[in-house]
Specification:
single chain, alpha/beta, Rossmann fold, 7 strands
């Protein structure tokens, strides 16, 4: 198989959602003298919504936030304030990321394998392009970044779980949807990929480890590295046999099994390297 490998960004390439994103939002409020800080558990609950600007909008109906901040009654004024906060948060976050981030296991290796084997490579994220680009430049080798097609939430009308960002990625890559293997970490991302007719591998983080990823072909603790700590399959409809890490060939096999599942309604199929 020669296809396309598409990564989400936050939570997949790097896992900094509840740390640096949250810290950047909180810095904006400290600078403005707003007596509000997102704690880790509070922020984690907002992650059911894709996009930082969209998460900020949730505060409009939050009685705890309204108790400490005079929320504008005019919706247009509130939207302008949200947009301003989000721009500043993006700048702060970008500066944080430039100081250094660590890739999740297997990302660099699989990206390099994909390029070497002639696969198309993309990142499709609900995030702002400035933030996504900063992460990719900090986390990945320049030769990988040069091969990436980057699609962000700014390019589509609706964010995940809408499949628009993945449909656009396939279009830009010049591949059929069924030729794409997506790596995601959230239910919203899984639904977006599945809605686009793509095979989805989920590598959850601590925040969403126990979510129901029922549309994923495979749910695994990470993509893994040869010689590194073994990763564990914890769910999915097309389980492969036990692996300590996933190769590009494994992803190709998984896409084949997932296509069979969707075509024939198979409950489980598996094989390959033990």
């Amino acid at each position: 198989m020669s296809g396309a490998l598409i990564f989400d960004c936050d939570g997949v390439v790097v896992d900094v959602e509840t740390t640096r994103h949250r810290q950047a939002f909180n810095q904006v409020w400290r600078e403005d003298g707003v007596d509000w800080q997102w704690g880790e558990s509070d922020y984690a609950r907002t992650l059911v919504v894709s996009g930082g600007r969209e998460r900020l909008r949730l505060l409009y109906e939050d009685p705890r936030f309204r108790a400490v901040f005079d929320v504008p009654a005019n919706p247009d004024e509130w939207d302008r304030l949200v947009a301003s906060w989000h721009r500043r948060k993006t700048r702060i976050y970008t500066e944080m990321v430039r100081a250094g981030v660590t890739c999740r296991s297997g990302i660099r290796r699989l990206a390099a394998e994909a390029i070497a084997e002639g696969w198309r490579l993309a990142v499709a994220s609900s995030g702002a392009r400035q933030s996504v680009t900063a992460v990719l430049r900090a986390a990945l080798p320049p030769e990988v970044v040069a091969e990436l097609t980057v699609i962000t939430g700014e390019q589509v009308a609706r964010k995940k779980p809408d499949p628009g960002v993945y449909l656009l990625a396939a279009q830009e890559l010049g591949v059929r949807n069924e030729e794409c293997v997506v790596v995601e970490d959230t239910c919203n991302g899984m639904h977006a990929a599945a809605g686009a007719g793509m095979t989805c591998v989920v590598t959850p983080t601590a925040v969403n480890f126990h979510d129901d990823f029922y549309r994923a072909a495979l749910v695994v603790t990470g993509l893994g590295e040869p010689g590194g700590p073994p990763e564990v399959a914890i769910g999915g409809r097309c389980w492969l046999r036990a692996r300590a890490w996933l190769s590009l060939d494994d992803l190709a096999e998984l896409a084949h099994l997932d296509t069979r599942f969707r075509s024939n309604g198979l409950a489980r199929a598996g094989g390959g390297r033990t």
